[in-house]
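Dear Dr. H.,

I hope your travels went smoothly. While you were away I took the liberty of generating a structure for the chain from your last submission, since the lab meeting agenda had it listed for discussion. I wanted you to have the full record in hand beforehand rather than looking at slides cold. The sequence, exactly as received, is reproduced here:
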Amino acid sequence: MRLAATRQVTEPTALKAYDLWKTYGERQVVQGVSFTLNPGEILGLLGPNGAGKTTTLGMLYGSVIPTRGFVQLGNYQVQTQGRQARFSMGIVTQEDNLDPDFTVFENLVHFAHHYRITGKAARKRAGELLADVGLQDFGSNLVDELSGGMKRRLVLARAMINNPQVVFLDEPTTGLDPDARQDFWRLVSQLKHNGSGVLLTTHYMDEAQRLCDRLILLQQGKMIDQGTPDEMIERTVGAEAVEVEGIAEQTLQQLAQHYQTWYRPFGNSHLIGLPSDNPQALWEQLNAAEPYRLTRRRTNLEDVFLRLTGTPLE
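The corresponding predicted structure, in token form, is as follows:
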């Protein structure tokens, strides 16, 4: 499954965001966001609802005009050279927005015209992409005859019609069943291997942890942390945590202070980090308190998000 021809990477960066701000009236939705996206890299943009993810993404591909700052894609500034920049990008929005009057094959052929790919070249490209996403047997079907997962694969194929330098994926697997998500993950990983830079927003922490090389966490329009998934987990919450139910919060607070670790409410229970230098001592002390429930486990990105923002992602 190749999805697109392997890109010859010559640019040191695929995308640069410079000091992006967006203000609506007196409300600052995005404040000072800057980062780079490298060829062959998947960068995750995470944050709760209202954190500024959608607005930031819109500024990156040109649908939202920044109040301050700009975006560079290859040799072009997205805000002033949008037409040229769009020839080097692919976009998968949250909506499928496929044309229901066309067949699966015709959706790709007609979309190719936007990139001056016509005639035999458009039909050849459409056939290649349908094979790449496993839809080669559905070319003559109408869009409404496809399952949700198949529609998402078709939207991704459409975004790849121009072999883009950068692909934007805005919560691409929302609403898909686990098997369809796994299929989509394999296609996204193939984009990376083919040299495209991928900017991904997602509400699924397992998706971010599995796919992304680096992550940026937004809250109230600001970047509050960034790094690889492993770096953010180790730096923010350590290697292990314990889910506790049935121990008074005051006791947990005292234990956290004594062991110089952290704790947080976690649903109907609490979550407390095990210190890396002596995890067993705290674990034994928690056991001795005879809680209703005590679960020791590896930490993950969900824990990072909870500790940094104070709320679950959903």
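Two observations you may find useful: The chain has a mean pLDDT of 91. The chain is about 35% helix and 25% strand.

With kind regards,
E. W.
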